[in-house]
Amino acid sequence: MFKTLKIVWALLAGRRKLYFAALLCLGVSHLFNYLAPLIGSVTLDFVLSGKIPEPGTLLGWTHRLMALAGPLKDNLWYVVIGMAGLTAFGGIFAYYKGRLVSLASDGIARDLRDRLYDHVQRLPARYIDTHETGDMVQRCTSDVDTTQQFLSNQVVEIGNAVLLLGIALPLMYLIDTRMTLVSLCLILPITLFAFFYFRSIKAVFKSVDEAEGALTTVIQENLTGIRVVRAFARQEHEEKKFATRNSRYRDNQYHQLRMMAWYWSISDFASLLQLGIALFAGAYWVAGGTLTVGQLFAFMAYLGTLLWPVRHMGRVLTDLGKASVSLTRIREILDTPEETPREAPGARPEQRLAGGIQISGLRFSHGGERHALNGVGFEVRPGESLAILGPAGSGKSTLMHLLLRLYDYSEGSIRLDGHELSTLDRQWVRSQLGVVMQEPFLFSKTLRENIRLGRAEAQNEEIEAAADAAAIHSTITGFKEGYDTLIGERGITLSGGQRQRVAIARAILRNPAILILDDALSAVDSETESLILDALKKRRGQRTTLVIAHRLTTVMHADRMIVLDKGHIIQQGTHAELSQQEGLYRRLWNIQTSLEEEFAAEVLTNLAPTN
Amino acid sequence: MSAFQPQEDTFHSKLDFALWRRLFQRACTYRKRVIILFIGAIVAAIADAAFALITKAAIDDVVLHGANALWDYAWMYVAVTTVLAIDIWFFIMYAGGLATSMSHDIRRDAFHRLQELEFSFYDTRPVGWLISRLTSDCDRLSRIIAWGFLDLVWGFCLITMISIILLVMHWQLGLIVLAALVPIIGISRYFQKQILLNSREGRKYNSQITASFNEAMMGIRTTKTLVREAENLREFQTLSQNLFAAAYKTALQSAVYYPLVMTLGALAGGLALWRGGVAVSGGFLTLGALVAFINYAGQFFNPINQIARILTEMQGAQAAGERVISLLDTKPAIVDSPEVKARMDAHKTAMANGEIPGEDAAILGLDGYPDAIETIEFRDVTFAYATGEPVLRNFNLTVHAGERIALVGPSGGGKSTIVSLVCRFYEPTSGQILINGVDYRQRSLAWLQSKLGIVLQTPHLFGGTVRENIRYGRLEATDAEVESAARLVNADGFIRALEKGYDSDVGEGGNRLSTGQKQLLSFARALIANPRIFVMDEATSSIDTETEQLIQKGLETIFTGRISFVIAHRLSTIRNATRILVIQKGQIEESGTHDALIHKRGHYYSLYTNQYKREKEETVLESAGAG
Questions:
Q1: Cβ contacts (< 8 Å) between A230 and chain B: which residues?
Q2: Which of left, alpha, beta for A376 (phi over 0: left; psi -120 to 50: alpha)?
Q3: Is A450 in a helix, a strand, or coil?
Q4: For residue B444, how many other CB atoms are within 10 A of its CB?
Q5: Residues with Cβ within 8 Å of residue B9, at least 6 apart in sequence
Q6: Distance between CA atoms of B478 and A245, rounded to whole angstroms?
Q7: β B587-592/B579-584 pair status
Q8: By the CB < 8 Å criterion, does A566 face chain B?
Q9: pLDDT digits over B231-241, tens only?
Q10: In this complex, do A102 and B613 lie within 8 Å of one another by their Cβ atoms?
Q11: Is residue B5 scored above 50 in pLDDT?
Q12: Whether pLDDT at B46 is above 90
């Protein structure tokens, strides 16, 4: 509990003044609101009953103040002005309180969101890979909401309860000591009851949440798998499965309702009883002449305002628990180190890269025993194109990740134009490189905006030229809204090949010093692929190109190729050289050339058994 | 499509009474609860009004009669308190219970409806959208109906009662207090609406923020490689600032609203004190009555606020109500005709009475027609999806039992449409599909679909164990049968390697398994169903060559003796088909066996050679990886 309060206190940093100002406003507002009943009280006792208040008491002072306005008995409408005026003044301060609290709590939430977003973007890619996206998103959204709710409602509610007691208590004490004790006798038990009750039924709330989650899962599985359900005519089975979860959700809610019904009826009973005790004890003393009707009236008014926050204490305390869980979850993300410490970003050479790459003795492992790369070394001259060929798991993609500084190598060296990669600023390195991945990610923006991500200041004509080179221009203009077509959830869905081509247009527009195509044309048919590769060749100029693929037609266009297997380079050279050498490359090449013969043979063997 | 995105509701300026009446009628199936709730609301209103009266009586007793009846009033107070506490218990149980039960029932009916609706319904509605209808919309509407009913009855009763008491005690004074309250009603309505609109705006930004976070994580590599961090953050900050602005505006409106009505309440109290004070001085009113007046003036605000809130919420939830009602009202387009239903009933009765000879009973399907499927025929079939050009035009095809049809050709050519029509997931726009020469609309839907075995490109599993997932194909299958199906598709090996074997949990949607493993299970599931028609839609494209080789043998088992439709890229699956159809632009472009089509050197030939090269390359590469 104390620890949680400390966390909350830390969270308020930078906005504590706002909160204090808000509490101050709240206090002033309560003060005004408490003065209004005093006026009523004085009016009832002295003006209407004609008694003279004892000088020096609270009510005496109030009476004197009121009398300043003139003879009250004849000008009772002062009372209207007084009561409405005081409440209005109180209202103005209440308004400022609301304003300040929102500024503080919504401001904290906004900053927290921004901070989380910035941080998430700078986490190592591998951290995101190994954590469930759904859970991470939830931490960044609903956990922030929970925190915000707590900050805007409950932090003030705690302050409010303290303030109310702090203001009402002295006022009540000044009016009558006995009444103060009688009026507050049940307050503590009610608070304790609320606290322990809510704490003991935490599990009930959780069971409802869990039942709801299970229900949603069943609905989701059913709807996404509707084809399977129909294909096996399993509607009845599905409805039975759904009915179980649906009624469990209902029954858990019933259970929760029962707990709430007991809580509210008991706590309302106790609160009303507290009012009754004060009323009848007061009436008894009024009858005995030791209390006035006006004083009793004031007490009843105060008690009415005090009881509400007291009844809510239980909920405040539960919410405090929830907020502390949320905050811990948020902290876990924020405490994960970013991929580069902000204070030591690394070198950012002035000049644009020429595109030379020297790699030697490079080793890297994903954490297991086996090395994904085990002593790889090669060199690419500026402007050269190099193809990297190899089976799945040979280390091609790892190599790309290392070049982009998405992973960090520990052994060996990668040099770009002679600069050791690990000493360079990650962002600078990436700004020099362009990459297209096998499953490119497009943002839910328009096609134009997506391509423009390559270079923010690009003109529309440049965007269209890039799209044309990527053989996607005519597809785009075929859409009703052309380049302004929205993609993603709210727009259209592109096929894998279309997505790859948009990503290539994006990379072309970027015009990087080094372009990496990581199996970037796998979903594009061979004809279109050749078109794109030719266009890339024409535009290449001084650009270095790395092409990773497992299709020969893709890599054949490159100046030179290396063949990777299990983290080793097993072959390297030009197409002419490699197609002469015995090895993987030639075997692939043979498929292209000897197809006809093999084919004829295969057709014949197939014919034999059937005929 | 975008019309069905999970957008925020539009705010209706008028309440649609017909809609709410229909929703309320659903509540009335729980007549007992509604009546108890109605009584509970009135009891609560009476009790709430009674407190101020008791206070008045107590004060008058003390002031005028020297406290001779104070104990009586004290007991009365305790009695009212007890009644109210019990009443609170009841209405939480009954209003909450009613809301929960209604929500449960609407959800059940909507889910049932979704099981019947045809696929064209799903084509235009994202799953997420449907889920919100079944979860949050159901809960929200039921809550409004149940609690709104309670609050409206309670609020109107309390207001009426207080008004009557005031007017009876002193009618002039009563009128003054009531007059002061009129603006509170208007102000409450206005602010409640503003607050609702604003918080809805906040929710809109909130869901955009969620989408942004999702995108930031899914696209982390793209962001990093394009060095978009700063730009993205700037865009995000616009969103978070918008959310802040909306929240701030809502807070300000509440901050104005409550003090404003409080002041009006105080004004009403002050007026009562002033005019009442004059009356007390004149001896027309007791001191206790004056205190009661002031109390009542303050008590008005709560019910008015509640009524304003309920009405505003109803306006806001109207769109949700329309969506849920329209879902319940949607009539499924593909259902058994009355004639088919009658025949099924007749068949069932005849079977039960033993009127059908044994040999006939064995060969008849549940709709009374022969159970075996000898032929499937497309006769002049034209088909178009809800919006758009015909995908198939005057399509003709006859398939006989034992045939294995491979469908190849460019995407969008109509291959998947053909199999969807066979499965009767859609029905032809014109033309007929005949099974054994009978239009399949004269057969039972359940009968046809129980004859199907389908394996799709993206395998879909349900949460639960491996065993349960395979058994989904035939619920009454024994454990031995499940395991033998798994063995036939070569899934047994990996299943046994799992921690708990066949009893391993596959996770939500099967996410603890790899795509290839999931696909193997879906093959086993189709196999155990022992279908007459087997459909494979790109099912081998999501698995690697090695897994494909594993299931190849199992596939042969599945194909034997059935009608199968296979949409595939893999040559091994295509080559052995009894007939290959090249489908392009909704027409059969080429048709024949593999050898015949290769000799023809047409479209199939070029498709085949391309794919042949690809697969050869893969084999060479993978053999290098393995060697």
A1: 119, 423, 425, 449
A2: beta
A3: helix
A4: 22
A5: B200, B316, B317, B318, B319, B320
A6: 26
A7: antiparallel
A8: yes
A9: 999 999 999 99
A10: no
A11: no
A12: yes
Is the model's pLDDT at A553 over the cut of 80?
no
Mean pLDDT score across all residues of chain B = 85
Q: What is the mean pLDDT of residues B105-120?
A: 91
Both tokens assigned to B378: 């497309």
Of B131, B280, B290, the CB nearest to A223: B131
Alpha-carbon gap, residue B444 to B450, rounded angstroms? 10
Bridge partner residues of B533 (DSSP): B452, B563
| Integer Cα distance of A80 and B509 in angstroms | 68
Tokens found for residue B287 = 């001191």
DSSP per residue, A164-215: HHHHHHHHHHHH-HHHHHHHHTTHHHHHHHHHHHHHHTHHHHHHHHHHHHHH
Mean pLDDT of B577-595: 89
Contact B125, A226 (CB under 8 A): no
Size of interface A-B (CB pairs under 8 A): 415
Helix-, strand-, coil-residue percentages of chain A, each rounded to 5: 65, 10, 25
Task: Output the CA torsion sign for A345, A346, A350, A351.
Answer: negative
The model's confidence at residue B2, banded by pLDDT at 50, 70 and 90, is very low
Give the pLDDT of residue A596.
Answer: 61
DSSP B154: H
- How far does Cα B389 stand from its chain's mean position? 30
DSSP A421: G
Mean pLDDT of A369-390: 88
- As a whole number of angstroms, the distance between CA A520 and CA A546 comes to 11
The SS3 call for residue B621 is helix
Please choose, from the candidates A153, A185, A158, the residue with its C-alpha nearest in 3D space to the C-alpha of residue A303. Answer: A185
Q: What is the mean pLDDT of residues B431-440?
A: 92
Residues of A in contact with B287 (CB under 8 A): 44, 48-49, 293
Please indicate whether, in this complex, the C-beta atoms of B127 and A224 are within 8 angstroms of each other. yes
- Of B85, B213, B251, which has the smallest distance from its Cβ to A117's Cβ? B213
Query: Do residues A534 and A506 make contact, with C-beta atoms less than 8 angstroms apart?
Result: no
Q: A79 versus A434: which is more confidently predicted?
A: A434
Reading the block at residue B9, the tokens are 């509701």
**Chain B CB contacts of A595 below 8 Å:** 609, 612-613
A97 interface with B at CB cutoff 8 Å: yes
Which of A43, A46, A122, A228 is most worth mutating to test chain B (most B CB atoms within 10 A of its CB)?
A: A228
Q: At residue A609, does pLDDT exceed 60?
A: no
B463 → closest Cβ in A44, A217, A258: A217
User: Taking CA atoms, what residue in B is nearest to A128?
Assistant: B217
Instruction: Tell me if B96 and A128 make a contact (CB, 8 A cut-off).
Output: no
| Amino acid at the residue B518 | K
Query: Which pTM does this prediction carry?
Result: 0.79
* Gap from A125 CA to chain B (nearest CA, Å): 6
Residue A423 tokens read as 């000493």
What's residue B538's pLDDT? Answer: 75
Which candidate from B78, B93, B446 shows the least CB-CB separation from A261?
B93
Calpha distance B28→B38 (Å, rounded):
12
Are residues B209 and A141, on separate chains, in Cβ contact within 8 Å?
Answer: yes
Question: What would the pLDDT profile of A385-425 be if each residue is shown by its tens digit?
Answer: 999 988 777 888 889 999 999 888 888 999 999 999 989 99
What does the block give as tokens for A349? 């050479």
Of A457-466, B125-134, B378-387, give the range with the top mean pLDDT. A457-466
Alpha carbon A5 to its chain's center: 23
Contact B533, B452 (CB under 8 A): yes
Q: How does strand B430-435 pair with strand B438-439? A: antiparallel
Are A218 and B508 contacting, i.e. CB atoms less than 8 angstroms apart?
no
As for the ipTM of the complex, it is: 0.84
- Per-residue pLDDT reduced to its tens digit, A232-266: 888 889 999 999 999 999 999 999 999 989 988 99
